[in-house]
């Protein structure tokens, strides 16, 4: 076991290791959706939503065609539909308890990511639900996000991971299938083989 003397427990200790932020790291932050950031958010087809609640922290993937994932209503407000899922609603339950959220937006082929912090409300306004209908299906709820901080993250993490490099992509068969995972964790109560056979058609018919 590592000695406690190697564990950092104060901000002063962190700063002693990392120093102070570069001026550019501070200058890039805005308290609203600046026009320079708006196209990054509008072109993103994927985001990770982070929330916090009584049961702990939660991250949830969000995906839609670019332009449908989120709408910049105004410089201080984003709208994000909650699409069909597994009805666990972990993120939504967290938001009801603690409205603080964080979003990480990714655009395929682009190294920079956009980070948004703010507070969210879960809305069922009929006009909002209709506004985000896709394939004739409305979301059950829409998140109204009151923006507090927006800034970009440089491309180092994506360059190191080679996330957009097709040569590093992993074949799906190299990892356990969804059915195999469910079968293992349910002690074979769920028929994993049947689940995998039915999954492609189910995904296609229940995407929205």
From TrEMBL:
Name of the featured protein: Pyridoxamine 5'-phosphate oxidase family protein
Organism: Pelagibacterium lacus
InterPro entries registered for this protein in UniProt: Pyridox_Oxase_FMN-dep, Pyridox_Oxase_N, Split_barrel_FMN-bd
Domain Pyridoxamine 5'-phosphate oxidase N-terminal: 37-154
Annotated Gene3D superfamilies: Electron Transport, Fmn-binding Protein, Chain A
Domain of life: Bacteria
Pfam family, one: PNPOx_N
